[in-house]
Amino acid sequence: MDKVLVTVLLVMAGIVSATIVVNTVVPAVQRAGGDVISISSAVSDRIRTDARIIEIAAEAGSTTVQVWVKNVGSATIPNPERMDVFFGPVGNFARIAPCSQTGNAPPCWQLAIENDTEWAPFATARLTIELASGLSSGQDYIVTVVLPSGLPISTTFSV
Question: Between 132 and which of 5, 71, 100, 106 could a Cys-Cys bridge form, CB atoms 3.0 to 4.6 Å apart?
Fold first, then answer.
């Protein structure tokens, strides 16, 4: 009779232990799975979003720089007004605010999609950067555009 009682108690303890482990591990695995799916979706969006700076027009003394950026990814770039633009001499550049935030007071930038109604794949956007002072001759400048997805696109050029 003692062996039966000990066996029943051990079986019950095993069942309780298994229940505790399952109730602890399953929610953690579900949360981890949800995190993996979320990260996978974000990485997929970032991979499908890509752009290239294809041309820059700037002259010494000018306060306007024109930068053409082509969407070479497979997805439309949403909310281009939320991108970050950095511009200035190499080693001394700064973030430039959109003209809509500065009341068109330089330095600021504006974006216009030239061959589509949205920044869809294969569409080209013209980024116009208005500066407070003219560009210096013989100076190297850097322009960096960070898309809303976080993808940075950068190039340097000389005037």
Answer: 106
d(CA 90, CA 112): 26
Q: Are 107 and 95 in contact (CB under 8 A)?
A: no
Neighbours of 148 (CB within 10 A): 15
Instruction: At 133, list the tokens.
Output: 């002072």
- Asked if residues 125 and 108 have their Cβ atoms less than 8 Å apart, the reply is no
pTM: 0.73
Sign of CA dihedral 21, 24, 27, 30: negative
- Per residue in 100-159, pLDDT (tens digit) is 999 999 999 999 999 999 999 999 999 999 999 999 999 999 999 999 988 999 999 999
Query: For 83, phi and psi rounded to 5 degrees?
Result: -80, 165
Q: How far is CA 17 from the centre of its chain?
A: 46
